[in-house]
Amino acid sequence: MGQKICMNASCATTNTVEWKKGWPLRAGGVADLCFRCGSAYESSLFCDTFHKEQSGWRECFLCHKRLHCGCIASKLMVELLDFGGVGCTNCSSCYSSSLNKRSESQDLLGRLTMMLAERQPPNGESGILGNNIDSGRLSQLCQVVEANEPDRFPQSQRGDPKTLLGGDKREEFMPQPELGKLFKPESTKSVMETRDMQESLSQPSLSMSLAVTPSGPPFPSGVVEGKKQSNVTRSPTVQSSCSVLPKPSKSAVSTPGTSKAASCPLRSARPPVEGRGRNHLLPRYWPRITDQELQQISGNLNSKIVPLFEKTLSASDAGRIGRLVLPKACAEAYFPSIHQSEGIPLKIQDVKGKEWTFQFRFWPNNNSRMYVLEGVTPCIQSMQLQAGDTVTFSRIDPGGKLVLGFRKTACGGEQQGSGLTNGTSAEDTSSSGVTENPSSINDPAGPLQMPKEMKGLPEHLSSPDGEISLQKNKNNGVRTGDGSPQIKEKKRTRNIGTKNKRLLLHNEESMELRLTWEEAQDLLRPSPSAKPTIVTIEDNEFEEYDEPPVFGKKTVFTSRPSGGQEQWAQCDDCSKWRRLPLDALLPSRWTCSDNVWDLDRCSCSVPEKNLKELESFLGVGRETKKQRSGEKQREGRKEEASGLEALASAAAL
DNA sequence: AATCTGCATGGAGGA
DNA sequence: CCTCCATGCAGATTG
User: Fold this and answer.
1) Cα–Cα distance between A371 and A184 in angstroms, integer?
2) Hey, which residues does A413 pair with through a beta bridge?
3) From CA A109, how far away is CA A513, in angstroms rounded?
4) Å from A321 (CA) to C9 (C1')?
5) Nearest to residue A505, comparing CAs of A46, A9, A114?
6) Smallest Cα–C1' distance to nucleotide B8: which residue has it?
7) Which bases of chain B come closer than 7 Å to a protein CB?
8) Chain segment A436-447, per-residue pLDDT in tens
């Protein structure tokens, strides 16, 4: 950590800023980026998509089209991001635009397909998307892309670190200056960076990584609807505070949440911190956090807590619709500026360190805008909030990470469960519906979901056990704790799922998509005629194929009582199971006549052998076996087909 | 039919 | 009078 000038010419903070690590450039070298840039890619849209979530839909920053992260084109997009491209493959503003439409791109897609196949970890984990792309491949990709898109790659820029590093040249790589961030996909994190992952995550980071704008943290823009911004840098801190106490507004007094707050001598609404148009914020939205609460938390966190604003939930906010109406002034002051009605996904951490992603968007309304956070239902339910309760938006400095706290209206006083709480009545919030940091789910190395800042929270504010057992709830595809009442409401659960579907994250469909994708990976085989070229990168040998992979047939492995394993495959004609060598790889269609390993059973007329053993493994009985040739076979094929379709559609894209 | 989604409307409160 | 925002509503979508 030190003081340098951010090398990202488009970065909002081009003044002397904190920095923490460099930005690897394709031709080598490292560009020093400011804290904001550096932290941005940790939580960048595409990082999350590919390496944490690994499935689901995301929205392009530029064109706002949705792209499925499981698709190969999207994968390619992510890789290209490392070279400065920002945007989806559909986006005309991105130098990788139309890549998936070009005939030449088929080669890339084919290579990527192969890379996906190659990277499947032996244990079947969904790691292929999380593995690093080797530099050689990236170089190849880059060359092809450059060849295809010469206009986007002036010769002077290619592979010249000085060009990339030099002054504002970098800006030429940025499709839109106001994007202002370099999105560092995790796919391209170097080994070194991977090693530093924990450190990175322990650093405060911008959860809301989009739309960085020229001034004023966390997401200011130069001019927002005609309002000129103050050019404030790092925020003041907690102690910004109650020097000026507002005259209690009518609304503040009248709202259930705040009226009780007013009864607390310490709970005074404090003027908001810096932000666009903060002076226009109505006092009703001023955070009513006590100094005691703030000091306690600040002390625990080694970070500065900056209360931004709060809002008392209306019936519609807390209702099933899942939309939380944001005060316009607050949204424009503290949230990223958005220019498209669809808005952007916004990550906000709750008091337990769990990260939620909401869709921050707006609707045109009477020549103005109405800002909403969509998909809040799971979070609201997790906090067991209802109309009249208050949610508090705060920020952790440095880093600008958003924290969503809450304060409940309860008989005899308020309960507070924010990261700013005094800790006297932290809710035992269920983790249901939580869009847990996907890395914690997928990363076998351990959960990373608890930021350092939140680890400083008192225990009772953190997750009860810090490691909630993961249950793949097929109904909602999220972690479920021990069942809050809300979760048991089928309608709500359904609503959650569908809402999250809009969020493109962490929903049941993404879970299913991921599983399907993982299953599909099992089916990938190198083309039989393909001969691999061994490439050694960082002491790891990779087989590189010139031909795209083929889809193989699913097999099952059994364990002999005496030890050792056997592989079994089912004939596509007679549905009989045949034993295969362990290393046998089958094509997508395989019949007994293809059983070259056991000539005694290379015909469908030959009965099965050792069936009991196999059935024991499969957990099926004779009756099931009878049906196997019927329904089960069809289902099996259907499942297999779903995996194939997933890949096929990805490849088609 | 239920739910989602985008927009419209009108009351409340501030200027 | 104007802006904001809570909520309603209708068309679209989904199961």
Assistant:
1) 28
2) A410
3) 20
4) 14
5) A46
6) A365
7) 2-10, 12-14
8) 333 332 333 332
Q: Token digits for A473? A: 């709830």
pLDDT digits (tens, 9 = 90+) for A326-376: 888 888 888 888 888 888 888 888 777 788 888 888 888 878 888 988 888
Q: Is A238:A306 a contact under the CB 8 Å cutoff?
A: yes
Residue that wins the pLDDT comparison between A20 and A115? A115
Determine if strand C comes within 7 Å of the CB of A254.
no
DSSP-derived letter for residue A70 is T
| Host H or E run for residue A114 | helix A105-118
Supply angle C-alpha A64, A69, A73, rounded to 5: 85
Q: Is the CB of A314 under 7 A from strand B?
A: no
Residue A65 CB in 7 A reach of strand B:
no
Handedness of CA A373, A374, A377, A379 (dihedral sign): negative
What gap in Å lies between CA A645 and CA A647, rounded to an integer? Answer: 5
Average of per-residue pLDDT values in chain A: 49
pLDDT above 90 coverage of chain A, percent: 0
Task: Output the DSSP codes for A147-170.
Answer: HH-GGGS-GGGTT-HHHHHSTTHH
Chain A window 562-621: residues with CB closer than 7 Å to nucleic chain B are none
Q: Is A263 or A290 the better-scoring residue by pLDDT? A: A290
State whether the beta carbon of A341 lies below 7 angstroms from any atom of strand B.
yes
CB of A263 lies under 7 Å from some atom of strand C:
no
Helix (H, G, I), strand (E, B) or coil at A89: coil
Query: What's the mean pLDDT in A602-631?
Result: 53
d(CA A34, CA A30) in angstroms, rounded, equals 12
CA of A378 to C1' of B9 (A): 29
Q: What share of chain A is helix, strand, coil (3-state, %, to 5)?
A: 35, 20, 45
Distance A387 CA to C7 C1' (A): 14
Contacts 24+ apart (CB under 8 A), A621-628: A628/A575
Kind plus residue range of the DSSP H or E element containing A410: strand A401-410
Q: Please tell me whether residue A549 adopts helix, strand or coil conformation.
A: coil
Judge if the beta carbon of A233 is closer than 7 A to nucleic acid strand C.
Answer: no
Residues 590-629 of chain A within 7 A of strand C, judged by CB, are none
Residue A461, pLDDT score = 29
CA of A338 to C1' of B6 (A): 17
Burial A126-139 (b: 16+ CB within 10 A, else e): bbbbbbbbbbebbe
**Residue (of A332, A367, A13, A370) closest to A181 by Cα position:** A13
Give yes or no for residue A192 having a pLDDT over 50.
no
Closest CA to A580 of A596, A564, A562: A596
Determine if strand B comes within 7 Å of the CB of A64: no
What distances in angstroms separate CA A593 from CA A422, A584, A600, A603, one per listed residue?
Answer: 72, 15, 10, 5
Q: Is the CB of A365 under 7 A from strand C?
A: yes
Strand C bases near protein CB (under 7 Å) are 3-8, 14-15
Tens digit of pLDDT for each residue in A532-563? 666 555 455 555 555 544 556 667 777 666 66
C-alpha count within 13 angstroms, C-beta hemisphere, residue A10: 22
Please give the torsion angle defined by the CA atoms of residues A484, A487, A489 and A495, in that order, rounded to the nearest 10 degrees: 150
Enter the tokens of residue A322: 């899942």
Q: Characterize the bridge pairing of strands A344-350 and A401-410.
A: parallel
The residue written with tokens 């559909």 in the block is A90
> What is the per-residue pLDDT for A328?
86
pLDDT at A65: 47
Q: What is the pTM of this model?
A: 0.36
